[in-house]
C-alpha cells in the first residue's frame, strides 16, 4: 500500500545510544526480521528522504538516495522506529488522511505529519528536528504505537515479535516459488538434495541465488538474503535474518546478520546482532543464557541496563573479527573494527585488539583498518571509495574516547 506524500526519516539526539550498530549506518538501515525501516517507509510512500548525522551523510546519500520533495503531505518518522512491516499500511493511512499530528514515546518524537502550509527547513540536523517538530504544537496522537529501538539489544528482543508479519510481507512483495512445503525460493536458488527443512512453525524464505549445501538443517521462520551461502552440515534456526552475500555455517539461532558477513565454520551464534563485513573464525561461539537463568544486564558506557531478556548473545559492530575458538560471554557488546582472541568477558571498544586471555588489549591502528577494509572489499568485488575510508576515519575519531576511559584501558 503506497499513497501520495513524502516521508522523512530522521535521526535524533538519542541515536548514539544504539552504538555500535549505528556508528556506521543510519538507524533506519538497521535490519530486524528481514527488513529495515527505509524499506518499510518505501512501502508507504513514493518519496523517502532522510536527516542523519553529518558523518553518515555521504554513506546515506549513496545507499539511500534522497527522493526529491513532491506533492502531498510530509510525514516525519523517527529513524529508530522498529521496521515492523505492519507500520507501512498505517503510515500510508496517515499520509492519505493528511491531518497534522505528532506522537511520542518517552522523550522521543516517533512520527509527525506537518500542516499543509508548513515548509521543511533546509538546515535540519538530528539535533534540530525534534525541537522543530515540538515547536509546531501539533495535536498529539498518543495512541499510535510506533515502537523504537532505544538500545542495541532491542533489535534482538524484537525479532520474535516482528518475524511472523515481516516474513509474510517479504513473500508478498517478492517473487518466490514454493519449492518444498513452506520453503520459498527466489530465482537461481540451489538446494542440495540432502538439505532438511522444518517449516511447520513458519516459512523459510531464500533470496535470489542462495545456495543451501549438503546436510544442512533449516528451521523457520527464517530469511536468507540474496547471494548468500549456507555451508554444509550447518543448522540455521528460527527467527534468524541473514543479509545478502553472507556465508553461514555452524549453528545459528534467533540472530541478525547484516550483509557481507562470514560465519563460515562451526560454532554457536544465538540471540545476537552481527554487523556487516564481520568474519567469525572457526569455533567462535557466544553464550546467550546466564548460568543462573536470570535476566541479562548489559553495560552501556558507565551504566548497567537490565534488558529484561533471558536470552541475549553478543552485539557486534561492522568490520570486527574473531580468531579461532573465540568465546564471547553473555550480553557483551563489541565495537567497530576490533579483533577478538580467546575469552571475551567484557565489552570491547571499537578498534581494539582484544586478547585479554593473553594479557593484552591494544588499539588497532586506523591505517590497518583501512588496508583490511580494502582487502575485504576486493575479495567481494566491491570498490573501496574515499567515502568508505572517510567513514572509518570518522568512526575511529568518534570512538577514541571510549578506548581512553575504559575501566581497564588498552595499552596505547
| CATH architecture label of the largest domain | 3 Solenoid
Strand % is: 15-25%
Total number of strands? 34
CATH superfamily of the largest domain: Hexapeptide repeat proteins
Name of the CATH class of the largest domain: Mainly Beta
Q: Provide the CATH topology of the largest domain.
A: UDP N-Acetylglucosamine Acyltransferase, domain 1
What does the main sheet amount to?
Answer: 9 strands, mixed
| Rg, nearest Å | 21 Å
End-to-end separation in angstroms reads: 54 Å
What structural category do the secondary elements indicate?
Answer: alpha/beta
Keywords:
412 residues, alpha/beta, UDP N-Acetylglucosamine Acyltransferase, domain 1, 9-stranded mixed β-sheet, 9 helices, 22% helix
How would you characterize the overall build of this protein?
The protein has 412 residues and is α/β, with parallel strands linked by helices. The chain folds into two domains: 6-150; 154-404, Hexapeptide repeat proteins (UDP N-Acetylglucosamine Acyltransferase, domain 1). It has nine helices and 34 strands. The strands form seven sheets. A nine-stranded mixed beta sheet has the order 6-7-10-13-16-19-22-27-30. Strands 2-1-3-5-4 form a five-stranded mixed beta sheet, with helices on both faces. It has a five-stranded parallel beta sheet with strand order 8-11-14-17-20, with no helix packed on it. Helix 1 packs across helix 3 and helix 7 (366-379) runs antiparallel to helix 8. The N and C termini lie far apart (54 Å).
